[in-house]
Amino acid sequence: FQTLWAEQKVWLEDKLRQSTATWQIVVTHFPCGEDGENQAWYRTLRQQFGLDLLVTGHRHDQELWTPSMTYKNFMGGLTCFVTGGGGGITSEATPNPQDKKDWYGEGEYGFYDLTITKASIKIESINYDGKVLLDTIVYPK
Question: What is the distance, to the nearest Å, from the Cα of residue 103 to the centroid of all Cα atoms in its chain?
Answer without folding.
Answer: 16
